[in-house]
Amino acid sequence: MPTIQDELGRRSLLYSLLMPVMNQFVPGLDKGKGMYFLFVKSEARTPGGLLARPVLTSYYKSPHFVERPHDPYTVYTSPNEAILCPDSYQSMYAQLLCGLAQREEVLRVGAVFASGFIRAIRFLEKHWRALCRDLLTGAADPDTVTDPSVRSAVAGVLRGPDPELAALVETECGRGSWQGIITRLWPNTKYIDVIVTGTMAQYIPTLDYYSGGLPLACTMYASSECYFGLNLEPMCKPSEVSYTLIPTMAYFEFLPVHRSSGCAADNPDPSDLVGLVDVKLGQEYELVLTTYAGLYRYRVGDVLRVAGFKNNAPRFNFVCRKNVALSIDSDKTDEVELHRAVEKAVGHLEPFGATLVEYTSHADTSTIPGHYVLYWELRTGPTPVPPSVFEDCCLAVEESLNSVYRQGRAVDKSIGPLELRVVEEGTFDKLMDYALSRGASINQYKAPRCVKFEPMVELLNSRVRCNFFSPKCPKWVPGHKQWSTTKSA
């Protein structure tokens, strides 16, 4: 997405509004710190030679973040050196170590996405013993944190051995249950600041488990193309989150979504567009942008619903991402991309005479990290298909997915290995029967390419004959198509 220098300044101004809004609901946030898990990702060059990197990496590496003036409302436990470390493992380890060392000062915790915060807690589950040893010695293990600047920054936070803190962390993490671990380790935490709208809503039960039911605050609405607005009631329930757009961030227009089809017109007439002052309560719209950086009437792909008004400014619920079938972290896989990947993978079955009858998918977040699941119903041939061939199918699907997915799998480890579940013959007939029993039209029914409704997932899982996982990470080369950045809704 194109950007210009003053866009970072505009986005920084939006960040500066977050804490004044939050302070109206949670006073005293200037008396402590925020433990936020923030990371940078790889940079690349476009074919034309322009620097390309994810939008948050641009912000974290800019003077707006690195040289930000002291503000008691935006003091973080993580030193800049840990945030800017390109090695995600070292960065995560250092940020957790610093967060534990300042546990009494932490008033709020978070990450950009709910998935990222849960990944940090899962990292703690795996490495708490090593972290306790470092708290005991007062220094980061040199074999774990090898970056000299990060080691130096962490040493400045730890300030020597702390056997009492090490023993406390060991006691809490050594218990059988991790329920409420956040408030047990960071007892003064008032809320979790993460995005839990859209596909991130699937992580709410896990966050509730780890936090003991702390409030979940969705503070802002943004994407790679543009930062949009704020949640003026950030302590509301996740299901009630609404955003007020800031009209100076871009020129906003809205394309009405048709009630019958649930989507906007593919080739709309410009006269169909509605201005920010003309949206109607309860109506759903697809967001359209004209930005300072050069996007003109760009269809973001987000579907919003008018939830109400703040004075005369409309507030919007985020409804969904148009055409997105699967998402675990910052990845977005639509039905077309998934179908192409499946088509390529089933070629491995041809030598055995097996064919694909039907398929669907599911984003399984019961594991940490979450992973994609494919359900395949096959018509078998004369020769049994070896397990290794099904594993090759898994890898072929992953190799065919977009660069953001592959980076999440191969580098960030934010997505687990893709799983293929082969179901019994007739399973998709059963799935159709279930849909028809709930009122679907037999004339209009088609197998869903992604299932989220729990009874449907349970039906599919009850008929699984065998399952297979991708045997290794897909290839990901820094710079290869990285200029096709992804969205953050």
From TrEMBL:
One of its GO terms (cellular component) is cytoplasm. Residues 243-321 form the GH3 middle domain. Keywords: Ligase. It comes from the Eukaryota. Residues 337-454 form the GH3 C-terminal domain. The keyword Ligase applies. InterPro entries: GH3, GH3_C, GH3_M. Pfam families: GH3 (PF03321), GH3_C (PF23572), GH3_M (PF23571). One of its GO terms (molecular function) is acid-amino acid ligase activity. Belongs to the IAA-amido conjugating enzyme family. This is Uncharacterized protein.
